[in-house]
Amino acid sequence: xxxxxxxxxxVETSARHVHLSQKDFTTLFGPSxxxxxxxxxxxxxxxxxxxTVTIVxxxxxxxxxxxxxxxxxxxxxxxxxxxxxxxxxxxxxxxxSGDLQGSAPVTLLGAEGSLSLxxxxxxxxxxxxxxxxxxxKLGLHNGDAVSITVGKMRQATFHNVVVRESNVDFxxxxxxxxxxxxxx
Amino acid sequence: xxxxxxxxxxVETSARHVHLSQKDFTTLFGPSxxxxxxxxxxxxxxxxxxxTVTIVxxxxxxxxxxxxxxxxxxxxxxxxxxxxxxxxxxxxxxxxSGDLQGSAPVTLLGAEGSLSLxxxxxxxxxxxxxxxxxxxKLGLHNGDAVSITVGKMRQATFHNVVVRESNVDFxxxxxxxxxxxxxx
Lengths: 184, 184
Fold this sequence. Notes:
The first copy, chain A, is α/β, with parallel strands linked by helices. Helices cover 15% and strands 43% of the residues of chain A. Chain A is globular and about 45 Å long.
């Protein structure tokens, strides 16, 4: 697996979050609610919204989970392995964003309603957002797997970081909180 | 850094836990309490006991944290980085077990009392327990740092795994829950 040089990317931590379809958003927050931008994210057009939901687990709930925007075609809930233990859910698959078929079921609570999804709960496969120009420059292709090294005293090399063409100004690795907390 | 071959070690996950001095144990559980063995651990002589404590944090508490035995000279509390966020404590140092000088303060609750330690709260540096014979066989020395690779779909290579001479039947890597959950 190609190991990228450390000055070729930056690393961001992606905490648990939710993407919603417009229909599911209305179910959770009511017909008059709007998804307001609180903070733009690194991938152009994506943002942290003013809304949060509760993820309901058989063991415990996770509260105040950020809803990201804009709306997506299908709702999707991204958690860490640690979160799956907190919730008490098993067999949450590791998937790339959007690859939801056969993923785990999940129940959400919003300010105005609740929603049970048959699928949509995933552990996000770590990935590298790269724009088309940088992809050519680095000799990468959409879907390639690369290795990246992060951390200081607890340095780690993560393999199987999946390359994904995105609208970013600089190659950006997204790790989840388990990965970021394991390598710092 | 030397990378060990995967058939030269096994990997165990070490969840948050507490080692207590006999004096601190009495403070927490009363003068008539005894530390009973529930399950022997891989390092010979070490065991999971029948007692648990609560770690008190400024933000939240962590309950039912295992007390390991036997007693130690100084009490020590080992948590993950994720746990430090849950508790709401900052600047918990990454340390090898027993290296407590200048580590973080912590408050514990037991069945019969509470205890505030000026130091003793650490994030355990990942480490490799090896007996003397295997150390010679593998060309390792106490205190060496090695790299080890774990996980399947989310494979990762952890560097700075510190070699520690121990009474184990086979070389055993101890990862914390963040590390184990980041590489599975």
